[in-house]
Amino acid sequence: MSNLQPLNPTPDPRSNRPIGTTSGWTLCTIILVTGVVAFLVMDLWLLHGNNPVLIPAGSFLVLLLMAGVLLGFGQQIRRYKQGKGKITSIFASRIWLLAQAASRTGAILSGISAGILGSYQLAPDTVFLWEQSKYFALVAFSALLFCATGWLVEYWCRVDDDPENEGKETDNTGYLQSRC
Questions:
Q1: Whole-angstrom distance, CA of residue 45 vs CA of residue 42
Q2: Computed from CA positions of residues 119, 129, 121, 110, in that sequence, does the dihedral angle turn out positive or negative?
Q3: Rounded mean pLDDT, 16-33
């Protein structure tokens, strides 16, 4: 039992990049692809005579609330990096994962909402579609804000070069390699 060693993450041998923030190009690609797919699917849906997709009027508030909460957690990380606060490493890693999920989920939701909005704009004008278009526009904007908040908090959660690790060998994930 004495020769138990902690589990170390094994890096992907195909990747030479350290773990970092989600690329802006990746998020833009997600928005574009999901927007085009949602537009095409909703256009076909309406073309076949089906009812439009409904969205509650206050849906955008949930995204704004989640963006605010994430921004609050991100501020704690930022204050810690400035030497003004205290956090645990598990808290920081959870916030980093939450920020990654937020940026990607926000990108997906903004693309889908924008695609459906575009499809509704090309559909025959009705009062119902006009109301739903306003709600989808609000959701698309809120999801884009959620995506941007996640991306910003991801940036704040980056691990800067640590002078204590200078000269020590690290693997390509940024973790120090174990010499056990």
A1: 5
A2: negative
A3: 84
